[in-house]
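Reviewer comment 2.1 asked that we show a complete input and output for one of the modelled complexes. We chose the pyridoxal-5'-phosphate case, as it is the one discussed in the main text.
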Amino acid sequence: MTDAPDIPVRVRPEIAALPAYRQGRQAGAEAFKLSSNENPYTPLPGVQEAVAAAVEFNRYPDATATALRERLAARFDRTVDEVHVGAGSVSILAQLVQAVSGPGDEIIYAWRSFEAYPWLAVVAGATSVTVPLTDGARHDLDAMAAAVTPRTRAVIVCSPNNPTGPVVRHDDFDAFVRAVPSDVLVILDEAYAEFVTDPDAVDGLRVLGGEEFPNVVVLRTFSKAFGLAGLRVGYAIGHPRILDAARSTTIPLSVTAAAEAAALASLDAEDELLARVREIVDRRDRLADGLREAGWEVPQAQGNFVWLPTGAESLAVAAAFDAAGLIVRPFDGDGIRISVGEHESVAKVLEIAASVVRDLPTGHSGRRIA
Ligand SMILES: *Cc1c(COP(=O)(O)O)cnc(C)c1O
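Response of the prediction step:
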């Protein structure tokens, strides 16, 4: 909300109570912006050219991004009807939540997890049911299944979990979906799938390949691994009936021709982009290992970010990084998330983190038992 004086326009009270969206701070020239899980590599020339060629923007785009859906369907061996494209996977999340829930209905997700989830439920008028993460900052799928009631309309599973990092294991995911009633939508949010190296991690496309779980929809995005965050394009794969429901709630024509062209060009350049992903994964592993060696308690890191459980010290620790030119993302009272950025940022994060951990009180959650 703005700080304008009260005016008589009536806003839904739950909307008025929402905090205004605050973006990760923009970095100054010499700072590293490690607060939004963005890809540090600038776009490939071929992708830039594809965007530059999408010049007829006096015309509306193709409403259902047919060319991209066909391409994704072929890529993942699905039919075109089993693919839905949106202006970022967050917008598809919003469509799905609106399609299945309203006042009196419940949406279950782990907490802490992606900060958009509570907001999506509020906007749909639904009720959030949050299930605390276990030790190691993992989803507690047994507790999530046990939280299902006749009012539950969707469960969101985030793997790797943003902002804490661990994956859900595929055996656990399968057992979870079997335990959930088949009329409850299970949304598997895999925004960081391409960074996963744990062989036991769930892979949504394998789950869907089995035909066993028609109530599961998998969400992926071009924003993170493929570096198109600023163009807004993501996709869902799942049963056509569920995707049709999502399409019915869509704000029409929100995926631009430029975004579609960039996604197609990125699929053309997939090998090159995945080589960049491997570089980022390598940096991530060096970062996580280095932080643990320095004395930090770091949960499994399978996205393009690491999590420091700094608890009550989170804002102070984030300020220390900030002062050193490293913009990180604090979650007050809980921890800080540091994105894996440019090559040069890794040594700098390790240097500052090593000095910060020594200032934490003994026995603090962020410290490994020494
Ligand atoms: C970044 C992210 C998304 C998707 O972002 P878009 O840019 O909207 O595609 C979805 N889920 C999680 C958990 C994310 O971190």
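The chain has a mean pLDDT of 94. We note this here for comparison with the apo prediction described in Section 3.2.
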